[in-house]
Design a protein that fits this description.
With 408 residues, the protein is mostly helical. Helix 4 packs antiparallel against helix 6, helix 5 packs parallel to helix 6 and helix 18 packs antiparallel against helix 19. Helices cover 68% and strands 0% of the residues. The chain has 3 domains: 70 residues, no CATH class; 106 residues, no CATH class; 125 residues, Leucine-rich Repeat Variant (Alpha Horseshoe). The chain contains 21 helices and no strands.
């Protein structure tokens, strides 16, 4: 259409005529080759338009702008006219595979996915004349995603031509569209209300009657009583309720189950004091737990956090915590000093005897000295007991009481 040898100036009229001719050519194009020719002519028109000396835009007309808009529009129409391609089918299959792998499906949703993928297999086999079947992976979701990967590979291997195999590609795209719709309609946990989620997981199965309201609380108490840690954790994770969170955390504190280490560790990483308390009650010297709690020993601006951390490390019996906590026996805050002393008593490491004896002798606060005396009694070696027994006539009754215990 373009005349590369022409030297005449490109006018609004000639450029407009070429644009109109391209629109007609695009409408008549039936093959990818013909569309390629139209695209080459669009490129040529765009080049000439950029080089053209066209009238400046005014309030009424903008010749250059109108032509640029026309070129952009015909490019969009060209892209719409291309294909469909086998690559579009593969892309749709990959999207469905990613959706299946990323969502959390209910049991019903998994059944719906299985049926959807089976139907897609039937449609693809009919379109390609193949005999593809479900993958043999044990895990259902892995089975489905592996199947779709195999289907995508089979489509690619066919080498389908957008002109010669247009009908086959259209059938495959229809199958991919049905697959996407089926995946979108399959039930996920997010589709359910909180109560429906819990009912599906058996949370309310323990209720023969409702004694306390709300029923969620009644069920929680039963789960705690019979040791259903999984259900207590489920309540903690699922309910968006301060009331239920408080009672679930209290239940875990009383239960101290090792199954709660991972979720409590995640909360402890955010300075959650209840979670730290629960980790102490669990009392397992997990390396990651200890490392997380040791980070808070020096949290001098948050004495409450320090206090629960000291106690948790004490209950865990962390030897790694002895030196860091002993350093807090001289903290400015008397409560921190007292809690540090008691934590050392819980750990029971003999390295703490001398620092605790110094506190018992020198600290100005009797409550801190009493905590040091209690800690020495907990360590209970001969040296520790002797250090306490010497204070039978102490000015503070609590210290005297610990000294008496040491003499027994």
């Amino acid at each position: 259409m373009s005349d590369d040898g022409a030297s005449e100036e490109h006018s609004v009229e000639t450029l407009t005529e070429r644009l109109e001719a391209l629109e007609a050519a695009l409408e008549d194009a039936e093959t990818e080759a013909e569309l390629d020719e139209v695209e080459a002519e669009i490129d040529a028109l765009e080049t000439d338009l950029e080089a053209a000396d066209l009238p400046e835009a005014d309030d009424d007309e903008d010749p250059a702008g109108d032509l640029e808009d026309g070129v952009d529009a015909i490019r969009d129409d060209l892209e719409d006219a291309r294909g469909p391609y086998a690559a579009d089918v593969v892309s749709d299959l990959d999207d469905a595979k990613a959706d299946i792998a990323s969502a959390e499906w209910t049991e019903r949703g998994e059944s719906e996915l299985l049926e959807t993928v089976r139907e897609a297999l039937t449609d693809v086999n009919e379109a390609l004349g193949t005999s593809l079947s479900l993958s043999d992976d044990e895990d259902l979701l892995e089975r489905l995603t592996a199947t779709l990967e195999n289907v995508a590979s089979a489509v690619e291997a066919e080498g389908l031509d957008p002109d010669d195999d247009a009908e086959t590609i259209a059938d495959l795209l229809a199958a991919a569209d049905d697959l996407a719709a089926g995946v979108d309609d399959a039930q996920t946990w997010e589709d359910l209300s909180v109560r429906e989620q819990l009912e599906a997981q058996g949370y309310y199965d323990v209720l023969s009657h409702i004694k306390d309201y709300p029923p969620e609380w009644h069920a929680l108490k039963i789960h705690e009583r019979v040791g259903n840690v999984e259900m207590v954790l489920l309540a903690l994770e699922t309910f968006d309720s301060d009331f239920m969170e408080e009672h679930a955390l209290e239940a875990l504190t009383r239960m101290g189950p090792e199954e709660a280490i991972e979720p409590m560790l995640a909360r402890a990483g955010k300075r959650d004091k209840d979670a730290i308390t629960i980790l102490g009650k669990i009392g397992v010297a997990d390396e990651e737990v200890v490392e997380t709690l040791l980070d808070y020993v020096d949290a001098d601006k948050d004495p409450l956090l320090q206090g629960v951390t000291f106690k948790a490390l004490g209950e865990i019996g962390s030897e790694e915590a002895v030196a860091p906590i002993a350093n807090k026996l001289v903290a400015e805050n008397e409560d921190v000093r007292s809690q540090a002393a008691r934590a050392l008593g819980l750990i029971g490491d003999t390295r703490a005897i001398n620092p605790l004896a110094d506190v018992l002798e020198d600290d100005e606060e009797d409550t801190v000295r009493a905590s040091a005396a209690w800690a020495l009694n907990q360590i209970a070696t001969e040296d520790a007991l002797e250090a306490v027994a010497a204070y039978a006539d102490d000015r503070a009754y609590l210290v005297q009481a610990e000294a008496e215990k040491a003499r027994v």
